[in-house]
Amino acid sequence: MSNAFLNTPIEYLKNVGPQRADVLKKELHIFTYNNLLQYYPFRYVDKTKFYKVKEINADLPYVQLRGKITATEMVGDKRAKRFVATFADETGRLELVWFQGAKWVAEKIKPHLTNEYVVFGKPNVFNGRFNIAHPEIELVSEENTVFASALQAVYYSTDKLKGKSLDTKGIAKIIKGLVSLIKNNIPESLSKEVMERFQLLPKEEAVKQIHVPKSPELLKKAEFRLKFEELFFIQLKLLKQKGLREKTYRGFQFPKVGDYFNTFYNNHLPFELTNAQKRVIKEVRLDMGSGKQMNRLLQGDVGSGKTLVALMNMLIALDNGFQTCLMAPTEILANQHFETISSLLKPLDIHVGLLTGSTKTKARRELHAKLQSGEMHILIGTHALLEDEVQFKNIGLVVIDEQHRFGVAQRAKMWNKNSQAPHVLIMSATPIPRTLAMTLYGDLDVSVIDEMPPGRKPIQTVHRFDSNRLRVFEFMREQIAIGRQVYVVYPLIKESEKMDYKDLMDGYESIVRAFPQPQYQVSIVHGQMKADAKEYEMQRFVKGETQIMVATTVIEVGVNVPNASVMVIESAERFGLSQLHQLRGRVGRGAEQSYCILMTSHKLSSDGKLRMDTMCRTNDGFEIADVDLKLRGPGDMAGTQQSGVLDLHIADLAKDAQILHAARNMAIELLSEDANLEKPENANIAYHFAMMGKERTNWSRIS
Ligand code: ADP
Ligand code: MG
Fold it and tell me: What average pLDDT is seen over the chain?
């Protein structure tokens, strides 16, 4: 950035110097004044409010009290020595405790009849009484105005920072110092029109208020301004990318709906489409008929019927003389799609091929030839589709199932298979919150299937402790007796693979003991098995030859056995919410009442408890995704790693949906009027946008 002030290296700041600068760089990637100003507080404490002792409860994060010290005492021997002061106001008393620096505190704090102290800290319950460990404490005096300042910013710190006296207070101090230097140094990044429309604080004012708020109202305005700006520029970037792509790639135009589609639709559709399916098929059709290259995300909860929607659109590609392919994340899924689609299309004269890692060389060669000659219409497979030998005669539509398992780079590789780019439809069964979708996939168009096929009974979900396993087995027997099938799923997490594998095998053995042959047959599928062995076991279960499928999460995505009505998830506390929801989606696919049983040990963290409760409360994937986002933040959610979401400094996708919508709409409007940001009134925006790109590349080179 050409702004000298903002670009000033951090070591030049008062109270920083080379050593502290070094740890700021290493720990927080703070190199310049600008970086430091963007190190926003994560919360504020209201130091204008005073509690009374009797108002205290352990749920309060912090309290500020005013009163007297009535007694002090050094307790314990050398190692476990602690200093305890009795603090009292007119409503009661509590203990203040210091474990560290006890001697030093003892010097400073003395019982006194008239002197008043202000105490600030987090109340705890100990032996049925309240205390505060390591409170901030200060004698009330005329000149002592620290406690008069209203909202105080609290910053994250780390052990290494604390080692250089940069705890939250230390950081607050240097930032306050920096804020006091600001005088017309921070250029406005938004246009007058945008500022007026959303009544935004000027940038400089917002930056000051966010660190040193004069009032709660101003703080709110500052937060709004900075969040808006952050989200606005991300959206601007995504939308510009989209615009650029639309300019660069001409799309194939699929003007007609022809025989394949009509014959299938009129004569072979296995069931009435839901309204949501119809709507989405139309959205895709219009997009592919428009002449621009489609990049569309198809979101729909597990079981909402995405496959059929994809298939109908694939038929439109065929009707217009093009080939199409469908790429799945696992071999099991690719096989399953192949089976489903081949059987649906049997009455039509359409060639469907399957290509996976297991396809033998000879079959592979034949397939390659048929693709190049155009004899093969539809190719279904795994990553194998991306190999160089795979050349289509004229591919018009690429459908990608569960894209988050593939890198964006691979997607791009697909586009380049032809000089003209095929349309791309990405299907995702991972319901992600709208806000995250808009940020992750903001350069894509989005279609949502928000309606389940009729006749589905909501899955009943319960949480059971391991000690109830025999009862759970009993329930499984009842369900099997009325002809249903059961999944039992174990976690397999990379880091503890060996132990997980042992758990799986132990579990399998105990199930085989509890469900003995010949009355019961049990399948097992896990990642260490060969593909054909896996497939064999899967098929036994699909055909109903086995009643129980013991598996690791390989069955997570897409597998479809409508007769399976019970999903038992072992060590459910070890799964994330979206994974639990995915797993649960394996049942409830037929007309029967289905069940999901979440097994956990008695030891459950509060997050774990919330996850179980959420699963038991709702089947709505989007609601679950929202809770997931709140629990984990975007960093751990599928697909976020490659995106800019993690660069967010202040906006929170779990909370700021409205601001995001406003920012996106504003960006759309702006680009529709000034696509290249050339108008003079948008100069601020254009400048900031250009700088943003530069800054990112600079810092990524350093780190
Ligand atoms: P997903 O969206 O999870 O990929 P699928 O496409 O596998 O869902 O569909 C789930 C099940 O619902 C399949 O058995 C499918 O045949 C069935 N299905 C799809 N659409 C309908 C519909 N409109 N009416 C009834 N069943 C449907
Ligand atoms: Mg599917």
Answer: 87
Taking only the tens place, the pLDDT of each residue in 396-453 is 999 998 665 555 555 556 656 555 788 989 888 766 777 777 776 777 888 989 888 8
Look at residue 145 and tell me whether its pLDDT is greater than 70: no
Measure 564 CA to ligand 2 centroid, in angstroms: 16
Ligand 1 pocket residue status of 582, Cβ below 6 Å: no
Helices 606-617 and 577-584: angle between axes, nearest 10 degrees: 30
Q: Which CATH class is domain 460-618?
A: alpha beta
- CB-count exposure of residue 657 (10 Å: 0-12, 13-18, 19+): middle
Task: Check if 300 has its Cβ closer than 6 Å to any atom of ligand 1.
Answer: yes
Residue that is written with structure tokens 């929607």 in the block:
309
Mean pLDDT: which of 290-294, 315-319, 604-608 is highest? Answer: 315-319
Determine the distance from the C-alpha atom of residue 667 to the mean position of all C-alpha atoms in its chain, rounded to a whole number.
23
Which residue has a Cα nearest atom 24 of ligand 1? 453
Q: Using CB atoms within 10 A of its CB, is residue 580 exposed (0-12), middle (13-18) or buried (19+)? A: buried
Q: What is the pLDDT of residues 309-340, one digit of tens each?
A: 999 999 999 999 999 999 988 888 899 899 99
Other C-beta atoms lying within 10 Å of the C-beta of residue 553: 18
Residue 405 in tokens: 């398992």
Q: What is the pLDDT of residues 460-506, one digit of tens each?
A: 999 999 999 999 999 999 999 999 999 999 987 665 777 778 888 99
Can you give the pTM of this predicted structure? 0.68
Count the Cβ atoms, other than its own, within 10 Å of residue 116.
13
Q: 261 is written with which tokens?
A: 């589609």
Measured from the Cβ of residue 362, the count of other Cβ atoms closer than 10 Å reads 8
Superfamily of domain 49-148: Nucleic acid-binding proteins (2.40.50.140)
User: Looking at residue 545, what is its pLDDT?
Assistant: 95
Check if 336 has its Cβ closer than 6 Å to any atom of ligand 1.
Answer: no
Task: Output DSSP code: residue 457.
Answer: P
For 504, the enclosing helix (H) or strand (E) is helix 497-514
Token pair for 566: 């019970």
Q: Tell me the three-class secondary structure of 386-425, residue by residue.
A: HCCCCCCCCEEEEEEECHHHCCHHHHHHHHCCCCCECEEE
What is the sign, positive or negative, of the torsion defined by CA atoms of 179, 180, 185, 186?
Answer: positive
What pLDDT is stored for residue 148 in this prediction?
47
Round to whole Å and give the CA distance between 551 and 526: 6
Burial class (CB in 10 A: 0-12, 13-18, 19+), 501: middle
Is residue 429 within 8 Å of residue 557, measured between CB atoms?
A: yes
Alpha helix positions (H), 444-496: 469-481
Q: At what angle do helices 531-542 and 331-345 cross, to 10 degrees?
A: 50
Identify whether the C-beta of residue 392 lies closer than 8 Å to the C-beta of residue 370.
no
Residue 109 vs residue 177, higher pLDDT:
177
**What's the pLDDT at 69?**
93
The token pair that represents 385 in the structure block: 């589709």
Residue 293 beta carbon below 6 angstroms from any ligand 1 atom: no
Count of positions (residues) in the chain: 703
CA of 374 to the centre of ligand 1 (A): 29
Residue labelled with tokens 């502290």: 20
